[in-house]
Amino acid sequence: MADISMPIGAGTNTKAAREKLAPEALLAIVVLIASTFTVILNEMMMAVALPQVMVDLGITASTGQWLTTGYMLTMAVVIPATGFLTERFRMRTVYTIALSLFTVGTLIAIVAPGFSVLLIGRIVQAVGTAIATPLAFTAVTALVPQSRRGQMMSLLTVATSTAPAFGPAIAGSILSVAGWRMLFITILPVALICLIVGNRMIKVPSTPRHSKIDVLSVLLSAVGFSGVVYGLASLGEGSAEHVIVSPWIAILVGVVFVALFAARQLQLQKSDRALLDMRPFADRTFATTAIIALGFMTAAGGMMTLMPVMLQTSYGLTPLQTGLFMLPGGLTITVISMVVGRFYDRVGARPLMIIGAVIDAVGLYFLSTPAPGTPIPVLLATYMFIIVGQAFLWTPTFAASLGALNKHLLPHGSAIMNTIQQLTGAAGIAIAFSIMTSASAAYVAGGEALAPSMAHGAQQYYLVACFMVIVIFFIAPVMPKTKASEGSGIPVAVH
Fold first, then answer.
1. Rounded to 10 degrees, what is the CA torsion of 466, 464, 481, 493?
2. pLDDT-derived band at 108, boundaries 50, 70, 90
3. Would you say the C-alpha torsion 306, 70, 46, 54 has a positive or negative sign?
4. What value does the mean pLDDT take over residues 283-304?
5. What is the Cα–Cα distance from 445 to 394, expressed in whole angstroms?
6. Is residue 165 a contact partner of residue 177, using CB atoms and an 8 Å limit?
7. How far is Cα of residue 180 from the mean position of the Cα atoms in its chain?
8. Residues with Cβ within 8 Å of residue 479, at least 6 apart in sequence
9. Where are the domains of the chain?
10. What number of helices (H) and strands (E) belong to the chain?
């Protein structure tokens, strides 16, 4: 089948032609959004279920944590290769493989007789998740006209950003009436529907490139990214009881191998054989949004993980109450992201990013100031205020970064942005818990009780996160001023 490219903001003469979206493409986008939400929701549910899993399977916390750490490590290893997979095979084929793996992993988890089999199921799920998530961003960018890209991308970013908010509430509700296996039983039919419908409807014209995978790149990527994520995750856990390798050694080795991986890709991309092409960073828009993503995603990852811990340890909320506390944030980001998507199509990324950075920073600063006994409604209002700021950052970041790339670099750009999301998530958790633990210890040494000391420790992290976001306020003005609907004439994928 012939390769087709669509120029950004060029080659169309009427508004209707530019904005028309075929019913088949719309259904494909709906399936991609649903599958993305499902796989990420599954990723977030296990943290809430872990105490019950530990009791049911008779394992310790140091063993049980591998159900989440192993998931993160697997995704860190697989995501960098998704750009190659999307170029090597048709998107429908890659999607089918991804959802099939996720479904099989879910089945394994349901019937798992013990921890080892459950961990295998989680790893298989993680492989499917790692392929499906960046694929969704690539496919939506390819299917949607430039004039509607912000609106449609906002729906996809809603899926990636609301699942962490809905996950604890849904998991808490299910666990209050059933066992942990019911989490996977609930996910299974949704995964099957997405697999069947997606296999029929995701049709993105492309010409697969029959290139061979570079084994050395795969090895360098696996050791490098897994080392960094493992090290950061181990730091974030705040305990060395179950650490196999020193977190700092893992991070150092990971960074060295990531550097070697990047050097290898720079060499291979000269002959168009890179596993993960680095050329997206040559585009100013992509490079700028990647830097912005490093800041606000790190801050968001730490805040989203630390908030439930603080609510339960310092404010005495139950897991279900904590999930319900975070639920309005998911609803808020859904609504605000829809609005942001429409404005992105009119004004572009820069003003939205500046507004989002200001809102996010103000909210995080306020979280760093209240006393440990602050009423829950005040914390909730502040949390939702921060969520509004994040909504102004998520959609422009992904829409602008991927919209700047041509069809060959689009899958690689998507893989890079999703790799950044995984690394910043792990880094945010590590930074958050390291700061909270050390600050809390100082308060306890000064005679303060443990619960308020942890709240004070969390405040120290919120202040650090505030400064992470403030940096965006100075970087965002570097973004091009061009409106999204005007475009730059760069060909964007239909791949």
1. -110
2. very high
3. negative
4. 89
5. 40
6. no
7. 24
8. 285, 288, 289, 348, 349, 350, 353, 400
9. 4-9+19-494
10. 17, 2
Question: Residue 481's pLDDT is what?
Answer: 66
**Helix 181-201 vs helix 23-57: angle between axes, to the nearest 10 degrees?**
160
Strand partners, 494: 4
What is the average pLDDT across 419-446?
83
Q: Is 397 helix (H, G, I), strand (E, B) or coil?
A: helix
The full DSSP string for 127-183 is HHHHHHHHHHHHHHHHHS-GGGHHHHHHHHHHHHHHHHHHHHHHHHHHHTTS-THHH
* Per-position b or e across 359-390, b if 16+ CB within 10 A of its CB: bbbbbbbbbbeeebeeeeeebbebbbbbbbbb
| Right CATH for 4-9+19-494 from 3.40.50.2020, 3.50.50.60, 1.20.1250.20, 1.10.3720.10 | 1.20.1250.20
Q: What is the pLDDT of residue 136?
A: 85
Cβ(175)–Cβ(49) below 8 Å: yes
Query: What global pTM score does this model have?
Result: 0.75
- Residue 268 parent element (H or E): helix 247-268
271 exposed, middle or buried (CB, 10 Å; 0-12, 13-18, 19+)? exposed
Nearest to 353 by CA among 394, 384, 382: 394
List b or e across 23-56, with b for residues whose CB sees 16 or more CB atoms inside 10 angstroms: eebeebbebbbbbbbbbbbbbbbbbbbbebbbee
CA distance readout (Å), 212 to 218, 272, 274, 277, 378: 12, 11, 10, 14, 56
With vertex at residue 324, the alpha carbon angle to CA 321 and CA 328, rounded to the nearest 5 degrees, is: 150
